[in-house]
Amino acid sequence: MVHSNSNNILNFIQAPSIVKSLSEFEELIFNPSKLTFIEIDFFEKFNEIAKILALNKIKGNVVNIGIYKGGGALYMKSVFEELELIEKKWWLFDSFQGFNVETITSSKEIETLKWFNQYLENVDEPKPSDILDLFRKFNLHKNLNIVEGFIENTYKKYPQESISLLHIDVDFYRSTYNCLNYFYPLVVSGGWVIIDDYYLSSTDCGEAVNQFIKENKLKAELKRLGNYQAGWQKI
Ligand SMILES: C[S@@+](CC[C@H](N)C(=O)[O-])C[C@H]1O[C@@H](n2cnc3c(N)ncnc32)[C@H](O)[C@@H]1O
Description:
single chain; alpha/beta; Rossmann fold; 7 strands; globular
């Protein structure tokens, strides 16, 4: 077992700095030692959010949708454990078979999906057991639930308990909207919602968030949390 210090984990997952070139993007997919797509800048902001949750003793589980190789979720859990936010249950949802084609309908997003798939089809998808092994390696597997399948089918497995952190990283419009629709009502006041792809221009993830906020008349003060990420604290 390796020590679960969050700095060690940040090194271990080899989080990228800004991904500028296609070859850097390919590395993130094909190099098995690179365990997250999420850039280091975000993780620095995440540390601040975790401290706010700890300081304000915000209760509730963590729900994370879009895990891929698991590096992002692993780092986030290590930060929570360091802050002794250990009573929370962690729910990790992923299809473990890529994107839900049926929910991707605009021509822009269909083109983006084709582009992603030309890479993803040439590499084995991670499996739930790989993710569990990764968390075990750092003794971070307590209170962990890993749910396999498209979120549109699996969200009902979540026991309707309060959520303190909702992290959504499913890239596309409809799935992002669906995740907000299923889980946002369970986020407690003072809890945080993080959207990994808010500023991604090749999909309409940001528009899904704006639409959800508008339809539900939310007073969400969006903060930029990285090159692509945005989030807000629920009032
Ligand atoms: C960009 S990756 C997540 C990256 C990860 N957060 C990290 O730290 O690198 C997007 C993931 O979302 C999953 N995904 C996309 N749409 C989904 C859906 N509708 N239901 C479940 N998982 C989905 C994909 O299988 C993929 O693993």
